[in-house]
Amino acid sequence: STMEETDREAVATAVQRVAGMLQRPDQLDKVEQYRRREARKKASVEARLKAAIQSQLDGVRTGLSQLHNALNDVKDIQQSLIDVNKDWRQSINTIENLKDVKDAVVQHSQLAAAVENLKNIFSVPEIVRETQDLIERGELLQAHRKLMDLECSRDNLMYEQYRMDSKNTHDMNLIHTYFGDMQKLSEELAKQLWMVVQRSLVTVRRDPTLLVSVVRIIEREEKIDRRMLDRKKQTGFIPPGRPKKWKEKMFNILERTVSTRIEGTQADTRESDKMWLVRHLEIIRKYVVDDLLVAKTLLDQCFPPHYDIFNKLLNMYHQALSTRMQELAAEDLEANEIVSLLSWVLNTYTSSEMMGNSELSPEVDVNSLDPLISQNIVDQLLSKYMSTLTSNIIGWLRKALETDKKDWIKETEPEADQDGYYQTTLPAIVFQMFEQNLQVAAQINEDLKTKVLLLCLQQMNSFLTRYKDEAQLYKEEHLKNRQYPQCYVQYMIAVINNCQTFKESIISLKRKYLKMEMEDTLSSSHTSMDATLDFIAKEGCSSLLDEVFMDLEPHLNELMTKKWLMGSNAVGTICVTVEDYFNDFAKIKKPYKKTMTLEAHRRVVVEYIRAIMLKRISFKNAEERKEGAERMIKEAEQFRFLFKKLAAGSGEDTEGLCDIIEAIAEVIKLTDPSLLYLEVSMLVSKYPDIRDDHIAALLTVRGDASRDMKQTIIETLDQGPSQPNPNYVPIFKEITVPTLTVPKLLK
């Protein structure tokens, strides 16, 4: 059993403790002492146990006595309830009889209210008149106070009537009609309030107290609205015309005012003023900034904080602007108008000139403003702008070229630039137009600027092809009648120089408007434009040289003839003519002028050698050969002198060309025929493109070589080595030698 277990545990614990006390032999002496200590401990524990049990018993005794009392109380209450029940059953009949008293009380309270209201009821017409006067005098607060009194009387009467007999509409209507004028007063007062609200931004500067009064009236009405709605929840009754919702109406009026303000700023139309849109947008900007500054500094103080009037107005302006910008975007705008609109919407609106104005912060945060028009509309406008601009640019370029062509047939020389080079206004006009459009595009954003630049260069590319064709036509027309146009040479020079100007302008345009990383996208079109320009310039130069050589033709025909041998001045005339032309050619820009000089030099030499190869003369004797050869050497010197002068400063070494004439002269001059083969082979080794027919013609002109001798020389030459000058540009290959034709034999 549990008791036994406890005993066992106690013995075991005691054994353990005794064992703990008696571990050393000397402790046995203290056994008596230990026993006494343990006895004391045991006595104290027993005393504590007794005390605890005693207090428990006391508690139980008290509890039992309280339970006994409670039982008696319950019995008493039960008896009382039985008595009450009995009394209540007896008095039900008495309560039934009190209904009349209750009705009398209700009636009394209504009559009391009626008597109270009678004073008011009889004075209604008079109060209405007074209120009307107050409204007309602009004393809105007092007028409203009286109006509230009137409404209060009417509403109380109606409420009493409703409580008494909610079905009785006849009496309700009677009250309503009696107070009919009061409804008109309310409307009249409202009209005055809305006029003040409409002009609030002006009123707040002139008469802020008037605005404050209006706000106070609206606040009072809001309070009454709330009270009436609460009563409706409880009783189901609400007076006519409630809730008035004047606060909501006030915000609607403000919203309409803001919209009208923004729409009303368009004073002009496109017909009356080209700049109508710029003007319209500028007026809007000014109005909005002014209005918001007034709203922030003055208006805000006239309204309770919970109206949040500044932010509400800010939203209204933003909304009205957004609507207006969408309307404008939907109109049929011209290219420059699209730019004005987009630049305003995307940049001006959030700039420091408008919403970013430092005086409007921190209330206005431009980063949290929504866009005025959607990205979709922006994209539509941009694509419309690009397509309009494309057709405009095509038109402008066509017109510029037409105007330029008209200049080409003028009888006055073209203008020269500051360095004296002929030019026309075409490159300046074209690039000024490009510049203007790029600056305009840059107002909107980087991306549009790049697109416009690509468009300009793309159109430039096709324009240059037309320019090339027109230059070609110009040349062909001139060849039909060389007297016309009078200044053909000068205008052709201007066309050539324009090519150089175009090249430089393209580079500077790209440098100014194109980001480095975009460079690659344009390199191919740039290369193709350069190629076209080089082609136009090259064709122009060659057509100018054709002019020179058409004029030289009669003099070139005189070379290597009897007349020439007798002492004609053909070469002198040739030199003077070339120099005269080159006075004009000095107006050609550097890179092209250099090639012109080289080409002229080369062609003069080619024509001279061609004259030799035409076999127009065959020298009769050594005397004539000497005279002819010396004349050739002298003329080569004249050419050398001329072209050195023309190439002055260009650092070109073209001495070698005249050397060929001198080398041929040496072959003709030779007096010892046995050395002829040696002389000819030296000539061939220097100029390896000399053909057999050239040598045959040369020997024919010499006039002393037999057919066999010619044959031998030509056959032997084929085996000889050649050692041409590395800079030598073949010249003989373009010179043909006439073969003996039938008409020649018949002569």
Notes on the protein architecture:
- This protein has helices at 2-21, 31-96, 99-137, 140-164, 169-178, 180-198, 200-206, 208-235, 246-263, 276-302, 309-330, 335-348, 375-408, 426-444, 446-480, 488-513, 519-558, 562-566, 570-585, 590-613, 622-646, 655-669, 676-686, 692-702, 707-717, 742-746.
- It is mainly α and 747 residues long.
- The protein has 4 domains: 35-244, no CATH class; 250-373, no CATH class; 379-542, Tetracycline Repressor, domain 2 (Orthogonal Bundle), CATH 1.10.357.50; 559-734, Exocyst complex component Sec6, C-terminal domain (Tetracycline Repressor, domain 2, Orthogonal Bundle), CATH 1.10.357.70.
- 25% of the residues are buried.
- Residues 742-747 have low confidence and may be disordered.
SSE topology:
Layout: H1 2-21, H2 31-96, H3 99-137, H4 140-164, H5 169-178, H6 180-198, H7 200-206, H8 208-235, H9 246-263, H10 276-302, H11 309-330, H12 335-348, H13 375-408, H14 426-444, H15 446-480, H16 488-513, H17 519-558, H18 562-566, H19 570-585, H20 590-613, H21 622-646, H22 655-669, H23 676-686, H24 692-702, H25 707-717, H26 742-746
Helix pairs in contact: 3-4, 3-6, 4-5, 4-6, 6-9, 7-8, 7-10, 9-11, 10-11, 10-12, 12-13, 12-14, 13-14, 13-15, 14-15, 14-16, 15-16, 15-17, 16-17, 17-19, 17-20, 19-21, 20-21, 20-22, 21-22, 22-23, 22-24
